[in-house]
Each structure stands twice: as structure tokens, then as C-alpha cells.
Write a structure and sequence with these properties.
Number of helices: 11
Structural class: alpha+beta
Strand content: 15-25%
Order of helices and strands: HHEEEHEEEEHEEHEEEHEHEEHHHH
Largest sheet: 15 strands, mixed
Shape: elongated
Number of strands: 15
Helix content: 40-55%
Oligomer: single chain
Radius of gyration: 30 Å
Length: 365
């Protein structure tokens, strides 16, 4: 029976080439567009979720109680101080740099301009799940003037030569020893860089006492909470601890209280628009908007498909009458028309996948 349905369905599709072509073309294009849109949405929603402990990583952000504005950078010694005083914290990491203009990094006579030259704590590789391909993750960033670079940067600076143990010159003045090679950071990370140096040299690069200066907010502080810790309850304890330590003197010298808020890592890309973000983030409203567009495209394609199929079926009353005469029942007639629709839909899906695959590189770019 099924074999007969398929045979007759293919014959009817061949005899009604115009209707079949319009249906397949329209549905294929709609499915391809919706597929690309939903791939984009999936990519946006996946930001920073590849980290092993992404559900326990938070970024400390600074908010003035007297203002609706906030900042992604917080006091320089905040991370280490919190780790020392709160047993709920498993680890912390500071990221300093980015957004301060291009920096010159040199190897021999070759000079390159880098957008993001980050200074980081040695705990960076413990908090974030960025694989270190070469070097020891426990010691790669332990010493001052050490630096880890990505595969892409290693190829750019050293070509096919072994980069470990080589020296990179920062701003024609400071020498950094390459101690590790990172796998290239994925696209769905809310910050991107090819060079990560030890933050222990920050006092030399900026000013003496930089890392312990509570009056300066120049770093992004990330906190890894221990399993089972309630972030809302911990944030209350954090507020009380920092109440007298953190104030702002930006309003005519009058001290204004500052509140530290814990922002989930996985919400930064779509929900965060603070001052001094490491990179420009997207907006969750775009996800809603494109989701709506994708659904509308699919609905329009489905309505068109049903209308054309219905119009085509209405012209086949003679065939339906003959089938009834020779004994076909209602269930068999429904099965015949459904089989034709399923074949059309399957063919459209195959073509849609090919179209999406063809346009995916351009769409991704």
C-alpha cells in the first residue's frame, strides 16, 4: 500500500510540474531562511556556555546607588580580597586591558598592533575552560613577565618555529616570555584576545601599588562560587562587607555608596551594557526579534504550501471519483494526499539544507 502511495504521488508530482515546482521552491527557501535564523539564535544563546563551570562563574559589576548607570570594571584588589575573606568563593580571576587602544607587540624586526593585550591572574586557566595546548597550566602565568598566546598569534609571530621560550616585546620596552599556547578562543566568548600576560607585572606597566589600589577600578573581576552557594544570598553578604570600603567621590567630592552586583557569566553577552565592557555585546531583543521573523516565515510558507496543495487537489476530482468507484475508502484517499505532501516537504527540506550549507559561510561572515 505504501509503495503504491509513493508511486502514485511521484507520478502526480511529475504531471503537475508547475504546482510542484512552486511548492518545493517556496518551502525550500523558507526553510533555508528559518534554518539560518535559528542557527544565529542558537549561536547567540550559546555564549560562554562552553566553560565547564559556566553556571557558577559570575562577573562583579559596580553600580552607584544614586545612579542607574553601572560599570563592568571594579576595584583592582576586589577579587583576591573576596577570595581571602569568603569561604563561599572557590576562585577568582582579574582581567585588565582591552579598550585602551592598540598596543605594539614585536618579535625581532616585525611589529604588530594588538587590540586586546590582556593582563590576567594565574587562576585564569582554572576558572575558564580555555585549553592550553602547550605549556603547564599550573605555572604558565605564575611568574611576572610571562605570557600565553593563542595558536593564531603563535603562527603570526613565529610561523612554524617553536614559540615556547621565545620573547615578545611589548611597546618596544617590556620583554615577555612565552610560556604557553592556548587553543584559539571560540567565537561565542564574550571577550576575545590572542595575548594573555601575567597581571603580576601591572605595577611596573602602570604604577606602583596598582593592584592593591581600592580607589582605582581598572580590572574585570570574575568569581567562581563553590557548588551549592546561593548567589543572591552571597551578594547580600558581599554588600555588607564592602559597604564602608567602597565609595565614589565623583559627585563634587561627596562620597556616594557603591554596590557590587554579581552578574552571571552566561548573561553578559545578551543582557549586559555596562560601561567598559571588554567587547561590545549583543542584545536579547535581537534574539526575540529574529525568532519572530523565523516563525513568521515558516507560517507563511506553510500557508502557501497548504493553499497550493488544496488548489491542486481540487482539480483532481475525477481521479478521486475513480478511486471511490474501484473501492478506495476515505482513509486511503487521505493517505494518498498526505503521502504527496510528505514527499514534497521532504524534498524541500533536502534542498533547504543544501541552500543553507551554500550560504552559511557568507552568512557567518
Amino acid at each position: 500500500m505504501i509503495k503504491n502511495y509513493i508511486k502514485v504521488a511521484l507520478r502526480n508530482l511529475k504531471n503537475n510540474k508547475n504546482h510542484s515546482l512552486i511548492n518545493i521552491t517556496g518551502l525550500s527557501i523558507a526553510l533555508a531562511c528559518s534554518l539560518l535564523i535559528f542557527l544565529y539564535i542558537s549561536h547567540q544563546l550559546s555564549y560562554d556556555r562552553f566553560h565547564k563551570n559556566s553556571n557558577r562563574i559570575y562577573r562583579a559589576v559596580k553600580e552607584l546607588e544614586s545612579s542607574s548607570h553601572g560599570s563592568a570594571i571594579t576595584p583592582n584588589p576586589l577579587g583576591p580580597a573576596l577570595k581571602e575573606n569568603f569561604p563561599e568563593i572557590e576562585n577568582t580571576v582579574r582581567i585588565c586591558g582591552g579598550g585602551s587602544g592598540k598596543k605594539t607587540v614585536s618579535i625581532s624586526e616585525n611589529h604588530f598592533l594588538e587590540d586586546n593585550f590582556f593582563l590576567i591572574d594565574s587562576s585564569f586557566l582554572d576558572v575558564f575552560s580555555f585549553p592550553l595546548l602547550k605549556g603547564d597550566p599550573q605555572t604558565a602565568l605564575r611568574d611576572p613577565w610571562s605570557v600565553v598566546i593563542t595558536e593564531q598569534a603563535a603562527q603570526k609571530y613565529f610561523g612554524n618555529k617553536e614559540p615556547l621560550g621565545k620573547t615578545l616585546v611589548y611597546e618596544n620596552k617590556y620583554n615577555f616570555l612565552v610560556t604557553g599556547i592556548l587553543k584559539d578562543l571560540p567565537d561565542n566568548s564574550h571577550f576575545k584576545s590572542d595575548i594573555f600576560a601575567s597581571i603580576k607585572c601591572a605595577d611596573d606597566l602602570y604604577w606602583d601599588g596598582f593592584l592593591n589600589d581600592w580607589t582605582q577600578s581598572s580590572v574585570h573581576n570574575y568569581i567562581l562560587l563553590k557548588k551549592g552557594v546561593n548567589p543572591q544570598e552571597f551578594e547580600k553578604k558581599l554588600t555588607n562587607y564592602l559597604k564602608n570600603r567602597l565609595t565614589s567621590t565623583s559627585n563634587g567630592g561627596n562620597a556616594a555608596p557603591i554596590k557590587i552586583h554579581l552578574q552571571p557569566l552566561t548573561r553578559i553577552h545578551l543582557h549586559s551594557h555596562y560601561f567598559a565592557e571588554l567587547e561590545k555585546n549583543s542584545d536579547v531583543r535581537f534574539v526575540y526579534f529574529y525568532s519572530l521573523i523565523g516563525i513568521i516565515i515558516l507560517l507563511i510558507a506553510c500557508f502557501n504550501f497548504m493553499n497550493i496543495s488544496t488548489a491542486s487537489a481540487s482539480s483532481r476530482y475525477i481521479e478521486v471519483g475513480m478511486r471511490k468507484v474501484i473501492g478506495a475508502n476515505r482513509k486511503q484517499l487521505i493517505g494518498q494526499f498526505l503521502s504527496e505532501s510528505i514527499i514534497l516537504s521532504f524534498m524541500s527540506l533536502i534542498i533547504a539544507l543544501l541552500i543553507a550549507q551554500l550560504f552559511l559561510p557568507l552568512f557567518s561572515h
